[in-house]
Amino acid sequence: QDFFASEENAAAALVQQAVLQREQMPEWFSASQISPLQSAHDLRCLAGHFDFQKVALLGYSYGTHLAMAAMKVAPSLFERIVLCGCEGPDQTFKLPAQFQEQISKLSSIFGRKIDEDVKNATQAVGEHHTFGLHWILATWLGVRPRLARVPRLLQSIINGDTTQFQKATEGFMKMLDNRPPTFWLCDSASGATLARAEQIKADATKCPIGTASNACVRQVGAAWGQCDLGDAYRQPVEAPCPTLVLTGSMDPFTPSENVATAFKNASEIHQKVIKNATHTDLLTGHAVQKCVA
Q1: Is 78 helix (H, G, I), strand (E, B) or coil?
Q2: Rounded-to-integer distance, Cα 44 and Cα 49, Å
């Protein structure tokens, strides 16, 4: 109960876990060795090891963020690039406005005010589970198998039946237990510019789940001793070769709107929006596979 009461409580537990994991690492380990920038350098070295003169690059989800880092590190390496989703250099921390838009889309699809359901369900679960509900919803809103369950989950809570919510929290805790340290290390290294942070703060007041989509990243990253890559890293990237970006109209994690500000030469990017595609559809969906082929 205490874990899901607030981000502070959840972060405290996850920080304690991170400290214990860090103590088990060898003395030579440094958190700065695990970041998207370091991975981009590793990719360049890997291509050199195999004597690849040119590489075709496919990135999905966080892989699109890594791909953009690689474009900066080794622009001449790539002959063509396909990105499934778009997480730009300053887009790792998600905008609550994108989740509010997703909630509005769900409202239209299901013919009910989902934002009101979130508020009513929040009151029903009580203060010990408020943050937990919002965090779970933040992860469900871009995942097709769970998206349709959102209205049912909220309605069951409002009706006083906590069975579905209990199962959701148990599954969420298992997911957190299995989440590798690299998730926290890479996202915390990417960070956010001051402008992005201020936009997130402003958006949060208009979204019923607030900033839950970015929960605990900074705190856990700090516990590992991770270093922020800085604003120079977070500048838009210039695509060095023909680049196709596929985005989903129902994806709040790597949304279509990200393309315009992720690239310096956004007007030269070939973007295709896959109608009704969620985040998890962007690698395996039939329409996506057809475009990539």
Answers
A1: strand
A2: 9
Residue type, 26: P
Q: Residue holding tokens 């920080």?
A: 15
Q: Taking the alpha carbons of 22, 6, 154, 273 in that order, is the dihedral positive or negative? A: negative
Q: Which two tokens stand for residue 119?
A: 């508020």
d(CA 103, CA 115): 6
User: In terms of pTM, does the model score above 0.85?
Assistant: yes
Please measure the distance between the N-terminal and C-terminal CA atoms of the chain and give it in whole angstroms: 48
Taking the chain (293 residues) in runs of 10, the rounded mean pLDDT of each run is 88 95 93 95 96 95 97 96 97 97 94 94 92 96 92 96 94 94 97 97 94 96 96 96 95 96 92 94 77 70
3-state secondary structure of 88: coil
Q: Is 4 helix (H, G, I), strand (E, B) or coil?
A: coil
Strand order across the 55-60 sheet: 55-60, 78-84, 243-250, 270-278
- Going by C-alpha positions, the residue among 251, 249, 209 that lies closest to residue 87 is 251
